[in-house]
TrEMBL record:
One of the essential components for the initiation of protein synthesis. Protects formylmethionyl-tRNA from spontaneous hydrolysis and promotes its binding to the 30S ribosomal subunits. Also involved in the hydrolysis of GTP during the formation of the 70S ribosomal complex. This is Translation initiation factor IF-2. Residues 77-245 form the Tr-type G domain. GTP binds at residues 86-93, 133-137, 187-190. The chain holds residues 294 to 663 of 873 of the full protein. Belongs to the TRAFAC class translation factor GTPase superfamily. Classic translation factor GTPase family. IF-2 subfamily. Signal peptide: none annotated. It is found in: Cytoplasm. It comes from the Bacteria.
């Protein structure tokens, strides 16, 4: 169905009609400003022009609130988001636990910590680092598969007594594919059998050249067990973050990514969200994947209720009507009606995809029987 005029679409995106027409031409579609195009084409144009399309119905496309560009003067530095990867038993979990204990803020507050899928540490210097608390490349690739690129820096954990192993190589591959810079944490350096130089040489074979060997990859010899050089590892992350010039606009409507979600017996659906831009507030109407709700409460990584969450801050969101999937995006919308429209559309799409998959399955079944 031909539903939206080129002019109307341009208006919704706050783009010039001529630019929309040009984009259409590049896609092989000839249209004037008053002509109508179908929703599928509109969706492509919206993406081409750098906005985020939201399908509100089969026949209509809305522009996501995340569409607009931020002005340079509204951008402020934000904490880097770090994912820890590496071979099994090389110390990912131990390192995440040890890093968490370096948080000066929670030390002051008594050190009660909650596992919510991500946490933030504050360094003596005042800088902050956000760690995704689900180590391993399974979580990383699952999120990426849903289009969520939340990670700014990958910490590659390599045990100094074991060296580069298959999952180390896998992790390097994933980080490189995602174009995320790697910092190498050579772990278990407390052990007499530790051979950090061997690790550096083995990394060469995977095109990961550390500074000592003439490359630009930062590496730190650490021990999750004794706490050796954890401060240096954190300094390296901050250094890498400065190179990346990580910034976000806290003053806009919020957008984030679901890191983890579950159905809690007492609290209902709970999603841990990493705010990417804007500031998420209690009372906001949010759409997360194909679920929506009004934010009833926000709980931080120390179990404290907070009124709002700034960019790169992990926070538990209460008040959703259902459980979204890890890697799905969360956006704030203006009205409940809009939230309902978007999620109803997405749920229907999900059901259709599911039905199609089952259809294929039974078809394959049929062929097998023949
Ligand atoms: P993961 O599979 O990568 O999450 O590894 P874990 O954190 O579960 O650690 C695997 C094993 O290595 C555990 O027995 C840890 O106690 C041990 N381990 C982790 N880090 C260190 C370290 O820095 N030094 C020593 N000696 N042992 C460590
Ligand atoms: Mg582990």
């Amino acid at each position: 169905p031909e539903v939206i005029t080129v002019g109307d679409l341009a208006n919704r995106m706050a783009e010039r009609g001529a630019d929309v027409i040009k984009t259409l031409m590049r896609m092989g579609v000839m249209a004037t400003i008053t002509q109508t195009i179908d929703a599928d084409t509109a969706e492509l144009v919206v993406q081409e022009l750098g906005h985020r399309p939201i399908r509100v119905s089969e026949a209509d496309v809305e522009i996501g609130v995340g569409g607009g560009q931020d002005r340079a003067e509204d951008m402020v530095p934000r904490a880097p988001v770090v994912t820890v990867m590496g071979h099994v038993d090389h110390g990912k979990t131990s390192l995440l636990d040890a890093l968490r204990k370096t948080d000066v803020a929670s030390r002051e507050a008594g050190g009660i910590t909650q596992h919510i899928g991500a946490y933030q540490v504050q360094l003596e210097s005042g800088s902050r680092i956000t760690f995704i608390d689900t180590p391993g490349h399974a979580a990383f690739t699952e999120m990426r598969a849903r289009g969520a690129n939340v990670t700014d820096v990958v910490i590659l954990v390599v045990a100094a007594d074991d060296g580069v192993m298959p999952q180390t190589a896998e992790a390097i591959k994933h980080a490189k594919a995602a174009k995320v810079p790697i910092i190498v944490a050579i772990n278990k350096c407390d052990l007499p059998a530790a051979k950090p130089d061997r690790v550096r040489n083995e990394l060469l074979q995977h095109d990961l050249v550390v500074e000592a060997l003439g490359g630009d990859v930062l590496d730190v010899e650490v021990s999750a067990k004794t706490g050796l050089n954890l401060d240096r590892l954190e300094e390296s992350i901050i250094l890498q973050a400065e190179i990346l010039e990580l910034k976000a606009n806290p003053g806009r409507t919020a957008e984030g990514v679901v890191v983890e979600a579950k159905l809690d017996k007492g609290r209902g659906p709970v999603a841990t969200v990493l705010v990417k831009r804007g500031t998420l507030k209690v009372g906001d109407i949010v759409v997360a994947g194909s679920e929506w709700g009004r934010v009833r409460a926000l709980v931080n990584d120390r179990g404290a209720t907070v009124p709002q969450a700034e960019p790169a801050t992990p926070v538990e969101v209460l008040g959703l009507n259902g459980v979204p999937l890890a890697g799905e995006d969360m956006v704030v919308v203006e009205t409940e009606a809009k939230a309902r429209e978007v999620t109803e559309y997405r749920q229907r799409k999900k059901r259709e995809a599911e039905a199609a998959k089952q259809g294929r399955g039974s078809l394959e079944q049929m062929f097998k029987q023949i």
